[in-house]
Amino acid sequence: MLSGILQLFYPRVCAGCGGLLPEKEEQVCRTCLLSFDRFPDAVSADRAMREVFSRNLSRTEDFCKAWSLYRFHKNDRLQTVIHTMKYGGSYRIGMFFGRLLGDMIADDPPAAPFGCIVPVPLHRLKKIERTYNQSEILAESIGEILGKEVRTNLVVRKRYTAPQAGLTLRQRRGNVENAFAVVSDRVPETVLLVDDVMTTGSTTAAVVQSLQAAGVRTVMLATIVLAS
Ligand SMILES: [Zn+2]
User: Fold this and answer.
1) pLDDT mean across residues, the chain
2) What's the CATH code, domain 37-226?
3) Fewer Cβ close by (within 10 Å): the C or N end of the chain?
4) Ligand 1 centroid vs 13 CA: distance in angstroms?
5) Residue 133, pLDDT above cutoff 70
6) What's the 35 CA to ligand 1 centre distance in angstroms?
């Protein structure tokens, strides 16, 4: 009864199609979820991530294992959902995908566990502008599922970088080069690095390099959507 009344005043709608959400569904309706191009398993997601790194950055040694939920397709409903998550103030969408990623990692765990989870940081001014860092929300949800510590202050973004969208691959790499730094003496040996979307891998690779320069030995990656 109460949920019916709440639905009347605060309708819960799908972030993909805008339709009313059935009672048991949250953030994204089942029809939209089924329309997204989901990786069939963790192995194929890992392989796709290696292809992205190899093609764009000529590097495949940056990470030991990677998880991703979906392949990116321009103008599909997933793009609408991600856009709402990043710019529309819908942090709950980040929590939703974070739980899916946490389940995926739990189903196919790494051979040796990671010590902590680190989100790709936003510059502090950008965080004020957007009110939250969606990668941090993802990391928190993954951490809850896996019972792992999330370290939001291990890496900082030193420069206020231009948005990566619209830049060429070379410009993207230059834009984030040396943009990140590890600012803690307590450096973990193994890290799960979380980013919301990976397009060319340039930002992720720049963070991985800062982690490795600080002494992190093994980096694993997790993202919602991979452009491949
Ligand atoms: Zn929908």
Assistant:
1) 88
2) 3.40.50.2020
3) N
4) 8
5) yes
6) 9
